[in-house]
Design a protein that fits this description.
Layout (H helix, E strand, L loop, with lengths): L1 H6 L1 H8 L1 H21 L9 E10 L5 H16 L7 E7 L2 E7 L6 H15 L11 E6 L6 E6 L4 H15 L5 E7 L4 E7 L1 H6 L4 H11 L1 E10 L2 E9 L4 H5 L2 E4 L5 E3 H4 E7 L5 E4 L2 E10 L5 H17 L6 E7 H31 L1 H24 L6 H31 L4 H26 L1 H4 L3 H6 L2 H28 L20 H6 L4 H15 L1 H18 L28 H16 L8 E4 L21
Antiparallel strand pairs: 1-3, 1-4, 2-3, 5-14, 5-15, 6-14, 7-12, 8-9, 10-11, 13-14, 13-16
Length: about 625
């Protein structure tokens, strides 16, 4: 066997220690299953875009004032950023959106941090009443794994208590980055005074506000040392209850009698003016977004979230409706199921074709080589910390048809050598492997080289598809390893009894391929069709080359007609209805239109849940979900 081992030693080494190969195959089977079951899954790759936008609200201002007093000061600061060449704004009544595009090659982390700093510097230049600007990044990692709509016949205070229960419970789930509540108006303390009462005591609202500000303070008093013990001293005078506000002294009147807020008006809890509202299935309520961490496993995390939601719901009233609007797990599960179905169908079809052409034994080897190559790749993918998502799973499906090529070539070479020689089975397998090893390696390296340009692709698209070449190259190299190591060993097991001289010792002499033997045998149906066609092509060389060239040129002409888009569209069981009314419409008028549209949609028996947002846009439940520019006149 020494000469054969010289031809290709890795195969000879595997055949020499078949028990080790058997144990290794069993380890790959167990390790691959464990790696596949425990690897994290998500719908899309985590990508940070090369753009961000700033949202700024200026309540009560028309679009002209928003542009002059809010947008221009912010644009002036943002123009000072390095690596942000393009800035443009979309202005509506009371709200504006400033979009910033970053250049390639700059560190987006530094640009985002510098942008936040510039926004803080611009706040003194904004007019009174203008809300703090909010910076939004394009980041697919924080897309909610779940969106819930909660509603019922309860007031906002009761709904706020329920929302706090859900939020506190969900934050304890491992993998949850944050839980956001939308739709509940912000509570505030309202002090109502009549101007006649203030005039009677010769007071103004400014004086009352100044007294409340002086009363609501917390001043540190330093540190007190008693021997080895130290104490922090502070003078707390904060207003923590409504009675504290009511008893605040504003001034002294006749006979030095204190005049308090209680004497001037009424103090009660109220709500800030609503900029938006949320309705779930036709009922006022709120919605919850559960956002994951970057390395979270969507499947495991969603199971925990479902359990927590069920536990909290069991403690709440039955008439409180909780609807699951979106679950990222369902879409991810469909992607994974598609891969598993493709694997099963592809393996079955390949094995069936191999059995028809090469026999049952050859089909068994090829059928074993497919999952063996794939399981080996899954182990390496897990070690490389690659997440299963739309791109990586697509890469596995893409190379699924290539996995069998090396195994088929190796099996066919072994069968051909068995038919042509009288040598022992082991020597025959080694000679077959040495004959096709170099072409297999060259072919695999050529295919891997085709994916190399994808490694060098930069920008947001490069980040989105970066796992595709990695998964493809890993899987192809594992397929080559399987063909050179495991397939020959399986050949010595499965083809036992087909060799005519099993006891013959390896001679070390190769056998040249006999062209006449290939031509002289009985052809199969497919070979009978292929040979005349091939002879015709070889006889008509120049016409054949012309046809191939014409097909190549035609493909180049068709490529520009295929169209180009950054991210592909996806089919989901959700759709978005955007409503834009004139800017003169307020939130209440927009809500009336939303209620009418809700009734029409809910009449459709195929619609299960409807979540409506008035004055704001739908949350980004998918990376390419388009949303409108929110405002009081949009929904």
């Amino acid at each position: 066997m020494s000469s054969s081992r010289t031809n290709f030693s890795i195969t000879a080494l595997g055949i020499e220690y078949p028990r080790v190969i058997g144990i290794l195959m069993l380890g790959i089977l167990i390790g691959g299953i464990v790696a596949y079951s425990q690897s994290p899954r998500r719908e899309d790759p985590v990508v940070r875009g090369n753009a961000f936008f700033v949202e700024v609200y200026y309540p009560g201002a028309d679009s002209g004032k928003v542009e002059d007093f809010a947008v221009k000061p912010l644009e002036k600061r943002l123009n000072e950023l390095d690596g942000v060449p393009h800035i443009w704004a979309f202005v509506r009544r009371e709200v504006a959106y400033i979009f910033c595009e970053m250049e390639e090659g700059f560190d987006w982390v530094e640009i985002i941090a510098e942008a936040r700093k510039k926004l803080e510097e611009a706040e003194p230049d904004l007019p009174d009443g203008c809300l703090q600007p909010i910076l939004h990044e394009f980041y697919t990692g924080d897309i909610p794994i779940a969106v819930y709509g909660v509603g019922g016949p309860y007031g906002y205070e009761q709904l706020r208590d329920y929302a706090r229960l859900f939020e506190d419970a969900l934050k304890m789930v491992s993998g949850v980055a944050k839980v956001e509540i939308e739709g509940l108006p912000e509570r505030q303390v309202e002090v109502n005074m009549e101007s006649e009462v203030l005039s009677r005591y010769e007071l103004s609202l400014l004086q009352v506000l100044q007294m409340l500000a002086q009363r609501n303070v917390n001043i540190p008093g330093g540190r007190l040392r008693l021997g080895r013990t130290g104490f922090l001293v502070s003078t707390s005078n904060e207003l923590t209850a409504l009675d504290d506000i009511r008893d605040t002294v504003v001034t002294l009147v006749e006979n030095r009698v204190p005049l308090t807020i209680r004497d001037l008006g009424d103090v009660q809890y109220g709500y800030k003016e609503r900029r938006y509202s949320v309705r779930t299935n036709g009922t006022p309520g709120f919605c919850m977004y559960v956002r994951p961490r970057k390395d979270a496993d969507i499947f495991a995390m969603t199971k925990k979230v479902d359990k927590v939601m069920a536990e909290v719901k069991s403690r709440l009233p039955e008439d409180l409706r909780i609807d699951t609007i979106t679950l990222q797990r369902d879409t991810t599960e469909r992607i994974v199921n598609t891969f598993e179905e493709s694997l099963f169908q592809g393996s079955l079809l390949v094995a069936l074709i191999i059995v028809i052409h090469l026999g049952l034994r050859a089909g068994l080897i090829v059928l074993t080589a497919i999952p063996l190559s794939l399981l080996t790749a899954l182990i390496i993918i897990a070690l490389c910390d690659i997440t299963y998502h739309k791109v990586s799973v697509f890469s596995l499906v893409l190379v699924l048809g290539m996995l069998v090529d090396n195994a088929i070539v190796m099996v066919e070479a072994m069968l051909r050598r068995i038919e042509m020689t009288n040598e022992s089975l082991i020597d025959t397998v080694l000679l077959a492997c040495s004959q096709v090893a170099t072409p297999l390696i060259s072919s695999c390296c050529t295919t891997v080289a085709a994916f190399v340009p994808l490694f060098m692709m930069g920008g947001m698209v490069g980040d989105y598809i970066k796992d595709l070449p990695w998964v493809a190259c890993i899987t192809l190299l594992c397929s080559l390893t399987t063909a050179l190591v495991f397939t020959p060993v399986m050949g010595t097991w499965v083809f036992r009894g087909m060799s005519r001289n099993q006891g013959h010792q390896p001679s070390g002499k190769g056998v040249e391929f006999d062209h006449e033997t290939f031509e002289g045998g009985e052809d199969t149906y497919f070979a009978a069709l292929y040979k005349p066609f091939m002879r015709a092509c070889l006889y008509l060389k120049w016409p054949s080359m012309f046809v191939c060239g014409a097909i190549f040129v035609g493909c180049l002409v068709i490529i520009p007609m295929l169209g180009l888009e950054l991210f592909p569209n996806t089919d989901r069981d959700h759709f978005v209805v955007e409503i834009n009314t004139p800017d003169t419409f307020g939130l209440k008028a927009t809500e009336e239109i939303v209620v009418a549209v809700e009734k029409l949609i809910l009449k459709n028996e195929h619609v299960t849940n409807v979540l409506s947002y008035s004055g704001m846009s739908v949350p980004r439940f998918h990376y390419n979900a388009s949303t409108c520019f929110p405002g009081r006149s949009s929904a």
